[in-house]
Design a protein that fits this description.
The strands form three sheets. Strands 1, 2, 3, 4, 5, 6, 7, 8, 9, 10 and 11 form an eleven-stranded mixed beta sheet that branches. Strands 14, 15, 16, 17, 18, 19, 20 and 21 form an eight-stranded mixed beta sheet that branches. By secondary structure, the chain is an alpha+beta fold. The longest helix is centred in the C-terminal third of the chain and has 44 residues. It is 49% helix and 17% strand. It folds into three domains: 358 residues, no CATH class; 189 residues, no CATH class; 188 residues, no CATH class.
């Protein structure tokens, strides 16, 4: 032991080495001295160092990965001028509370607001950009003239729109995205002022947006991040009954708040609804949210849940490392006692042990950066569609500071127990015991740490069990269609003659059973189309109260996607604008309007456009069929009922072809593309994918959270098992002589097992009880993510109890087996 003391060159044989060092060198020199000594101690115990650093790397690395997402998504401001002043503005129309606005409503809001400097709007649809060879389907943004300056300081080339560009006569002014300018026009700087073909007409390019410009809007706004071409829409009060299609974003005046803007919006909504020329709309409201808060609304809950999960894993890891350090402190007890006897103060010993913990935490934080980087890459691959726009996730300075701060915090946390144990050292008793038993208090602290690990693991497992059961319930949901063996292709610019001929041509392909077309695919991420409906004879106060999804289809759509026609008939080719106007509705709408009655033959007021795309008008249609509700928005939520109109009555420039086959046809997409090109080369085809892939995407967020929760729970359970194993192994090693004596005087194998288990069973049961109480408060927080299962589900609790007890027993079995095999003679000889 004198040799070990001599390793500290600044102390030598001085009876008060640490005090002398403090007088001579100052605190910084002593700190580096402690760091060097800590490094030597880790080098002497490579197994201990490897286990502790790996445990910390897993816990801190998982936190680093999730914090990288939290930092990029929840904490970082949007890349726009004055982002904290930007607000998303939604309309409440009838039973929809996140709806777009009409140009009439935008005009009235602009006239009345005093809280906003500017209010701009956008609507995005698909378009066609003709060119040499095959035409390209692009995203087209129809915007107010002031929309782009709200989100960008200046264009890369040219200028932004002005109010003069809203004039509808003549060629429209166009602004190109940097991507389409590079891809289709070779980054030609002379593009400004040139007329280019755009859909069925042409427009004049007046600007090109910066390379890094992206539209970051909430998912339900149907505004993708990359829009290829922008042109303007006119804002005036000429059409009080015009369609609602614009999603609004506004910039608050300096010093104004969302709360004050919302108060003003409530008043403006009441004023607009009282105008004589505007038809009364039930439940018309205006809602104002921070653009950033609304943008991350759908992912915030999942991220915070995962962040809480990795924090629990880190706490379990800290408890394990604390157990390791306490055992190591017991092994170094004689060394610490001799240092104290030679004059080291208690505060000096405390600082030495905490510095050693800091060294360990530093190594853990460095290793955690590698674990975190790998985890980020994995999460980016696994991320669901709601996370797709969040691409700038990386280890930046904020993440580095967080990682090393977490390393310091955990160092203090797991190093505090053994350090305080040394601080309260009874010198005389310790020297007398030498290397003997550690005493009840130390065992008590170790048992409490094990109880904490079991409790935290239990909470994680309860959450994971709920999420997994919920995911299995979602898998069993009937979406209202059969996605197997159905291929989809998106078309832009195809009229009825092309669609009808393409439908006929595709049905002649060997292996194709049927083909049809629809304006909006189930579970797709494209924009939606919905409007008010009411039955014949409904009083005026009920005529603008409820909305339904409107779908334009070709005959045979229901058969092709495998939807169930419950009553009446499908649409046929003669269901056009020249004949009786008809529609098919879903069973939810039929039950809502005509409960207990026959809906076939009833009349319904809808919005259609027989004169051409987007030329909407109110029309009476006769219900000729009822189909089972199809899940268009989500597998688990019924958002709105559905009304299906024949394409001739509601033509849309953007449609999706659906093709059902008897089996796999590898080149079917290529065949369909060639047939489209033969019919009309200006029709753009994009995004060919199986319908089953849309279902998989709809499942992805639930699967993402469930898989990550399962991984975290598995790690937590593994760490808790290691803790139980370590406590029992330590107990068996410490009581080897006692067990040997008991066996020598006749103790049975069962009695030895009972004695050993008593060391840990109390800790496990205490952990289970604590975890149960904690989970009662935590489980309800998962309610938003659950489907078909309640947070307090008894079967889930019983399952997790059994799992934890089984794993605990498994972890305890190895030390127990070792205890029952102790040779009494060898144990007594060692003593």
């Amino acid at each position: 032991m004198a040799r070990n003391i001599g390793e500290n060159k600044t102390t030598g044989a001085n009876p008060e080495p640490y005090a002398e060092a403090e007088r001579r060198g100052g605190s910084l020199e002593i700190f580096w001295q402690d760091v060097r000594y800590g490094l030597r101690q880790l080098r002497k115990s490579p197994s201990f160092a490897a286990v502790a650093i790996t445990t910390l790397a897993m816990g801190i690395g998982a936190n680093t990965a999730i914090f990288s997402f939290v930092n990029a998504i929840l904490l970082r401001q949007l890349p726009y001028p004055d982002p904290e002043r930007l607000a998303m503005i939604w309309a409440g129309l009838g039973d929809a509370n996140r709806a777009p606005f009409s140009t009439y409503e935008v005009f009235q809001i602009r006239q009345r607001t005093k809280e906003f400097d500017q209010i701009g709007g956008i609507w995005v649809t698909n378009g066609v950009l003709p060119g040499e060879g095959q035409s390209e389907q692009i995203k087209v943004g129809r915007v107010t003239s002031n929309f782009l300056p709200l989100l960008s300081t200046r264009p890369a080339l040219g200028r932004f729109f002005s109010s003069e560009d809203e004039v509808t006569n003549g060629q429209p002014s166009l602004i190109l995205s940097h991507g389409v300018w590079t891809r289709r026009f070779g980054s030609d700087p002379t593009i400004i002022g040139r007329s280019i073909r755009f859909g069925s007409s042409s427009g004049v390019v007046i600007g090109v947006l910066p390379r890094d410009f992206r539209l970051l809007f909430p998912d339900d706004a149907s505004v993708p991040s990359n829009v290829d071409i922008f042109y303007t829409t006119r804002i005036d009060a000429s059409d009080p009954q015009g369609p609602a299609f614009l999603h609004l974003v506004g910039r608050l005046r300096n010093g104004e708040t969302i709360a004050r803007a919302q108060a003003e919006a409530d008043g403006i909504a009441a004023q607009i609804n009282s105008l004589d020329e505007r038809p009364a709309v039930s439940n018309f409201h205006i809602y104002v949210f921070s653009l950033h808060a609304d943008y991350v609304r759908q992912v915030r809950g999942s991220l915070l849940l995962l962040f809480a999960g990795v924090a629990l894993v880190l706490l379990i890891g800290c408890a394990n490392v604390a157990n390791l350090l306490m055992e190591r402190a017991r092994q170094r007890r004689r060394e610490i006692s001799i240092r104290a006897a030679l004059g080291a103060s208690r505060s000096r010993l405390l600082r030495q042990l905490l510095t050693e913990s800091l060294v360990l935490g530093g190594f853990g934080a460095v290793a955690a950066l590698g674990v975190g980087w790998a985890a980020i890459r994995l999460l980016l691959v696994m991320r669901p569609p709601s996370f797709v726009n969040f691409t700038d996730v990386k280890i930046d300075w904020n993440v580095l500071v967080f990682t090393f701060a977490l390393g310091i915090f955990t160092s203090v946390f797991f190093g505090l127990a053994p350090a305080l144990s040394a601080h309260r050292l009874d010198l005389a008793q310790s020297l007398k015991e030498a290397g003997g038993a550690a005493g009840w208090r130390r065992r008590h602290r170790t048992s409490l740490l094990v109880s904490g690990e079991v409790a935290l693991a239990f909470v994680l497992l309860i959450g994971t069990g709920l999420l997994t059961r919920s995911f299995l319930n979602v898998l069993a949901v009937d979406p209202g269609f059969h996605a197997e063996n159905v291929l989809t292709l998106r078309l832009s610019g195809a009229g009825y003659p092309v669609l009808r001929q393409l439908q006929q041509n595709l049905t002649t392909v060997p292996g194709v059973k049927s083909a049809a077309a629809v304006s909006h695919l189930p579970l797709d991420d494209t924009g939606n189309w919905y409007d008010y409906y009411w039955k014949e004879g409904a009083p005026a106060e009920q005529q603008n109260t409820a909305m339904a999804d409107l779908r334009s289809i070709l005959p045979g759509y229901f058969r092709t996607i495998g939807a169930s026609l419950l009553q009446g008939r499908d649409l046929v080719e003669s269901d056009d604008a020249a004949h009786q106007h008809v529609a098919v509705i879903d069973d939810i709408l039929a039950q809502e309007l005509w409960p207990g009655q026959e809906a076939i033959g009833k009349k319904l007021s809808v919005s259609d456009s027989p004169d051409g795309p987007y030329q909407f008008q109110r029309d009476w249609v006769v219900v000729v069929g009822i189909v089972r509700h199809v899940q268009y928005h989500s597998l688990t939520a019924i958002v709105r009922p559905q009304i299906y109109l024949p394409f001739q009555l509601a033509p849309r420039p953007n449609m999706a072809i659906v093709i059902r086959t008897a089996g796999a046809i590898p080149d079917l997409a290529s065949i369909a593309r060639r047939q489209v090109a033969q019919l009309n080369k200006d029709v753009a085809v994009s995004r060919s994918e199986p319908l089953s892939q849309l279902v998989t995407r709809a499942l992805s967020e639930s699967a993402f959270v469930s898989v990550l929760a399962t991984l975290l729970s598995a790690i937590a359970l593994l760490l808790a098992s290691i803790g139980i194993y370590g406590v029992l192994s330590y107990s068996v090693a410490r009581r080897t002589s006692e067990i040997g004596i008991r066996i020598a005087i006749g103790a049975t194998r069962l009695q030895v097992i009972r004695m050993v288990l008593s060391e840990v069973l109390v800790s496990v049961w205490l952990g289970l009880a604590s975890g149960f109480l904690l989970s009662l408060g935590v489980a309800p927080l998962l309610n938003r993510l659950l489907y078909g299962i309640k947070p307090g589900n008894p079967a889930n609790y019983l399952t997790i109890f059994i799992v934890v007890l089984f794993v605990s027993s498994l972890a305890a079995s190895f030390p127990m087996r070792r205890a029952t095999r102790i040779d009494p003679l060898r144990a007594l000889r060692y003593e």
